[in-house]
Amino acid sequence: xxxxxxxxxxxxxxxxxMTIMEYWNGLVNTVQLVFLSLVIGLxxxxxxxxxxxxxxxxxxxxxxxxxxxxxxxxxxxxxxxIYYGLAQIPGIQETFWWEIxxxxxxxxxxxxxxxxxxxxxxxxRGAIVSTPHGEIEAAKAYGxxxxxxxxxxxLPSAARRAVQAYSNEVIFMLHSSAxxxxxxIVDLTxxxxxxxxxxxxxxxxxxxxxxxxxxxxxxxxxxxxxxENHLLxxxxxxxx
Amino acid sequence: MKKLIVAASxxxxxxxxGASAQERNLRIAFDVPYEPFxxxxxxxxxxxxxxxxxxxxxxxxxxxxxFVIQAWDGMxxxxxARKFDLIMSSMSITPERAERVLFSxxxxxxxxxxxARNDFSSDVTDMDAMKGKTVGVQRGTTMDTYVTxxxxxxxxxxxxxxxxxxxLDLEGxxxxxxxxxxxxxxQTILTKEGFKExxxxxKLGEGVGVAMRQRDADLAEEVNAALATLKEDGTYxxxxxxxxxxxxxx
Lengths: 240, 250
Fold this sequence. Notes:
The complex is a heterodimer of chains A (about 240) and B (about 250). Helix content of chain A is about 80%, strand content about 0%. Chain A has helices spanning about 1-10, 15-55, 55-70, 75-90, 95-100, 105-130, 135-140, 145-175, 190-200, 200-230. By secondary structure, chain B is of the alpha/beta class. Chain B folds into two domains: about 25-110 and about 205-245, Periplasmic binding protein-like II (D-Maltodextrin-Binding Protein, domain 2); about 110-195, Periplasmic binding protein-like II (D-Maltodextrin-Binding Protein, domain 2, 3-Layer(aba) Sandwich).
């Protein structure tokens, strides 16, 4: 078997050091883009989710509108609007904003972060509103104010309930990031498309990249299982 | 009984003979719009240089042709999957493609042209002046290969799927210059305000050929014969002069 693989590797023209390097650079770009947008998205989502649960419609309304807009339109359209749309604003090329939006990385990061923040906001909001009443009443009986209740009772218990749904969102985000290649970013998919169009070998180019995404997903699934085990320790049956 | 068998085999031979004498069916694929080679006119009819050449070729080959629209990305896979039999969609002959498909003799060649905004003043052949500039190309074209090989470490190369996206980024000042098929640049860039051609156009590659499946060697011979006739009897020149004011004949 190893001989067979070695022979195949010697014969193939596609997986040379150069194309492997191209895939590697693509992997770095994908991981960077997805990781940064998830971090930004999560940081924005927690306060937005809290605002979304506030009774006052002037506070929760705008957040509702934002999540509705970003969950109601395809990510590809959002990316097109931000990448090509911003370049059409007259005079933007002369402002400092152009330093940021000239390169495709930041428009893509902005689109991805806004999109994942919208979904994560709704995930966390769902977890917050499903906090058992008893827990909140008990906290009130102890004399905790709103701030302390949020910090000690509501958010930790919401985090436990949100983590499973959030792991899905993270995996979806990884796969959605494949569309970054339409705005000239050479991510994993972009590298595969370049190599495909050079060698006209769709199977080799795309199956390899699919395996890369699967490996990344496997790492994410594994990490989230560890996190769930840690957060939901109290739910496991007691063993001697 | 014997008579019946003889009669039946005679009938079969007649049918088979009749079929081979009949017009053969060919499906030809185009990627539209790619003006002026293949596009739809105001009435939605498929037309253009290659479409008319294909029509003339089919007549010469006495074949019954059907035109299929296929996006560029799936062109070669579609041919191999027998969705159509011929590609006449400005496919340049390259060694990599020749591994997958069988090319006819080239039937035209257009140069690659450099286009930029009016404020662009560098010389595109001067590598020092081009250092750090951003250049746009269409992914997988001969222009892509040329820029990748000759200016790889010098300029930043951005690859686009469609020429439209690329022109939008040239307009939006994300690109300093683009290197595209000359007729495409002439149609989509020079028709707009504020753009110009920069530097000399570059003759690239071996030209454009009709692409077929490797196993259809007989068909390739017929295509070559038909194209050769068209080039000689003036039909080719007549069609070319309708669409171009320069020579692309090969």
